[in-house]
Write a structure and sequence with these properties.
This protein has three helices and six strands, in the order H-E-E-E-E-E-E-H-H. The protein is α+β, with helices and mostly antiparallel strands. It has a domain of about 40 residues. Belongs to the FlgH family.
């Protein structure tokens, strides 16, 4: 009796530890884009005065030169216009049938009594199956990012993050990718569909996000359920 009580206590302690482990959840970590980190912008050394009217120095941008982003630290507005849809349908059908009969009338006289027991065998097998799936996603918005690296071919690697605090929850929008400077419009913006290796992440934490998650006990039973 005492042994059964000890086993019951151990089982309850194990379940309690599993529950505590499941409850100790932290805000969701980014899976697509790394968390934002400050960008180091190199400071150009102050050049000595080399002229009374015009002084050539690093960081100089001519008056009539295109003002599009081209250096680390420059900002670009990304217009998020993501829309993806996919549909898949499949079907299959098979059929098979066979018949076989045996007539015993032509056997010797000793087996004439078996003639009346002639038999016929038949079989049929049919199968039909079909399946389909569909998915669609749509995301729209605006986010401003910074140039983190200028590649050797002139393309710009960008990354940015936007945080929205709504009541007792926080929403995070993170974006990164590679932008061709020729794709940047005169309003210093580019659509997300023109960004290579685009990575977009939208997540949040707070009571609203927690309400959308399954409870720890239900997750435990789903994990150990055999079917």
């Amino acid at each position: 009796m005492m042994r059964a009580g000890k086993l019951a206590i151990r089982a309850m302690a194990t379940v309690g530890l599993l529950g505590l482990a499941a409850c100790s959840s932290s805000p969701p970590e980014p899976k697509v884009v790394e968390p934002y980190q400050p960008i180091h912008i190199p400071e150009y050394a102050q050049a000595e005065a080399n002229g009374s009217i015009f002084q050539a120095q690093q960081g100089y941008v001519p008056l009539f030169e295109d003002q599009r982003p081209r250096r680390v630290g420059d900002v670009i507005t990304i217009v998020l216009e993501e829309q993806v849809s996919a549909t898949k349908n499949s079907s299959s059908q098979t059929s098979r049938s066979s018949n076989m009969g045996l007539d015993l009338e032509g056997l010797p006289e000793a087996l004439e009594q078996l003639a009346e027991y002639g038999f016929t065998v038949g079989s049929a097998n049919d199968f039909a199956g079909s399946g389909g799936s569909s998915a669609s996603n749509q995301f729209s918005g605006i986010i401003t990012v910074q140039v983190t690296q200028v590649l050797t071919n002139g393309n710009l690697r960008v990354r940015g993050e936007k945080q929205l605090a709504i009541n007792q929850g926080t929403e995070y929008i993170r974006f990164s990718g590679i932008v061709n400077p020729r794709s940047i419009s005169g309003q210093n913006s580019v659509t997300s569909t023109a960004v290579a290796e685009a990575r977009l992440e939208y997540l949040g934490d707070g009571y609203i996000t927690e309400a959308q998650q399954m409870g720890w006990l239900q997750r435990f039973f789903n994990y150990i359920a055999p079917f």
